[in-house]
Amino acid sequence: MSEGSVHxxxxxxxxxxxxxxPAARNAMxxxxxxxxxxxxxxxxxxxxxxxxAVLRGAGGQAFVAGTDIAQFRDFAGGDDGVAYExxxxxxxxxxxxxxxxxxxxVEGWAVGGGLAIATACDFRLATPGARFGVPIARxxxxxxxxxxFARLRAAWGLQPVRRMLLLAQILDANEALACGFLExxxxxxxxxxxxxxxxxxxxxxxxVTQAAAKEALRRGTAQGAPDTxxxxxxxxxxxxxxxxxxxxxxxxxxxxxxR
Length: 259
Description:
- With 259 residues, the protein is α/β, with parallel strands linked by helices.
- 48% of the residues lie in helices and 17% in strands.
- Helix 1 runs parallel beside helix 2, helix 2 (78-96) crosses helix 10 (229-236) and helix 5 packs across helix 6 (158-166).
């Protein structure tokens, strides 16, 4: 299967980043993460030219369905998990630190790493069929970084995050709208119009004020993130994680043993 790509285009001050691997629901490969980081660095240097950045998935069936799990087969222990979570944090941090407002457009699945990407954006629009979650207690047996826990809690509130992580529950667009995670839910045919309207409103406002507000909020979220490398190392070094990866690649349910 293709390694996929992340495309960047800029039209009249609006940047659009497209995650393009629709055959795999836009699941992120290492190459896609690298491309995303490079594009974010480019956009950060174009703050005067680019007033809003839009992130969306290709194909209409998914925003991003997490990280491609097959890539975890090369992990040898907990230290690989710590390195991976730091790498993801750095990439998500580049989105979060962009000086211009960011908008995630969610059609279909935004789960795992895809939910982290959407959460790092300032605003989110979605279609009624959008679905959100971090079902790693059912699928993989790993955990998240402390920063990603903090980001999720800030955007969703504590109890929805508990449901996503402890119950491996997938939440729908109405639930995401009710807790404030989504700015708007609209039919597919109205999505581009809603996006255009939101981008126009954002682009008409004071960019220095927007950048300062974004950075103040980012710092506040990061301050509440303790060091949890021990927890990350424990999960990624566990037999359960190895079983989760093996079960996924073999197309069978995992047999969790708690070790």
